[in-house]
UniProtKB/TrEMBL annotation:
This is Retinol dehydrogenase 13. Residues 311-323 have a biased composition (Basic residues). GO terms for molecular function: oxidoreductase activity. The chain crosses the membrane at residues 178-196. SUPFAM superfamilies: NAD(P)-binding Rossmann-fold domains. The lineage of its organism: Eukaryota, Fungi, Dikarya, Ascomycota, Pezizomycotina. Residues 259-285, 301-323 are annotated as: Disordered. Coiled coil: none annotated. It comes from the Eukaryota. Belongs to the short-chain dehydrogenases/reductases (SDR) family. It comes from Cercophora scortea. Keywords: Membrane, Oxidoreductase, Transmembrane, Transmembrane helix.
Length: 323
């Protein structure tokens, strides 16, 4: 990127979106700066989709993987970055781009209880996308409700984007069912994927439109973009305030509960590690003292053996006749 743009001021940092702790470290490090860092846009492209037939998986923190990566990670990240977003100058056009997918239309209601026997990769994916869209609309209201100290209007806007069905590694993994044979079939039938699916570059056009189009400045935030055009939402519950309130509160509680549990685990692990290090140091010190003692005893024994050997070699006094 530096070479292509001829800009040496491009930097990259990593964050694990399957870990609430990693997200907090990343976002807190970014926010903890005075004056606030410049922020022009946030593009939340990360997503995961479990291949059909694959079992349900959880992150190391115990959260269902699809829900965590596709929705909760974005919720957590924006919640921490919110002060930095609101602190930007009034004349800066700040955009938060949230790619989504038409799969949200088939999602069960967010308040519906999904039993383990009813879980499926496609249902989990659709539900995570619906939750992300509900949160996006709610986050826009959260930004709009902020009263700037300079009494200027809020300058940040959320834009939802549906890039369409694209030939990305994620879609390839889903179509191939994550198997070697599936990849072989995918390669054999690639011509159909090439015809009916967009390239990643073509899919990115709607995202770039959402980032750069000046016309979006003249309309309220929270719009949905598809094929570089504004489209209407297909579900009413995306804008339902009661649904958004319940989702926001439940997400906050889940994050608080999980972070508390993980903090306790890290503290316990750190204490155990310190105890192991302390024990190892004590054992090393004891071994060193024992080695010194053995060395001293060995030296003493050698000295005694040497003395004994010298006494054994000492000549006996000769007897002379007494006249």
């Amino acid at each position: 990127m530096r070479e292509r743009s001829e800009n040496d001021l491009i930097y990259a940092e990593t964050v694990d979106l399957s870990s609430l702790h990693s997200i907090r470290l990343f976002a807190t490090k970014w926010v903890d700066n005075a004056p606030p860092r410049r922020l022009d846009s946030i593009i939340l492209c990360a997503a995961t989709l479990t291949p059909p037939g694959a079992p349900r998986t959880q992150t190391a923190e115990g959260i269902e993987t699809t829900w965590m990566v596709n929705y909760l990670a974005n919720f957590h990240l924006l919640a921490i970055l919110s002060p930095a977003i609101r602190a930007q100058p009034f004349d800066r056009d700040v955009r938060i781009i949230i790619p989504t997918c038409s799969a949200y239309i088939s999602s069960p209601p967010l308040d519906a209880v999904i039993k383990d026997s009813e879980w499926s990769p496609s249902r989990a994916y659709a539900r995570s996308k619906l939750a992300l869209m509900v949160f996006a609309k709610a986050f826009q209201k959260h930004l709009d409700a902020y009263k700037r100290p300079d009494e200027m209007p809020m300058n940040a806007r959320v834009v939802l984007v549906d890039p369409g069905f694209t030939r990305t590694p994620g879609s390839r993994r889903w179509l191939s069912r994550g198997s070697l044979w599936g990849i072989v079939v995918y390669l054999v039938l690639y011509v159909f994927a090439w015809i009916f699916m967009k390239s990643a570059e073509m899919g990115a056009q709607s995202i770039l439109f959402a980032v750069m189009d000046g016309g979006l400045l003249r309309i309220p935030g929270g719009q949905m973009i598809k094929e570089c055009m504004r489209v209407d939402l297909a579900r009413k519950d995306v804008t339902d305030e009661a649904v958004a309130k319940t989702l926001w509160e439940s997400s906050d509680k889940l994050i608080e509960k999980t972070e508390k549990e993980q903090a306790e685990k890290r503290a316990k692990a750190k204490k155990e590690e310190e105890e192991r290090e302390k024990k190892a140091k004590e054992e090393a010190a004891a071994a060193e003292r024992l080695e010194e003692l053995e060395s001293l005893l060995s030296t003493i024994k050698k000295g005694k053996a040497k003395d004994a050997a010298q006494k054994g070699k000492k000549p006996k006094p000769s007897s002379k006749a007494v006249k």
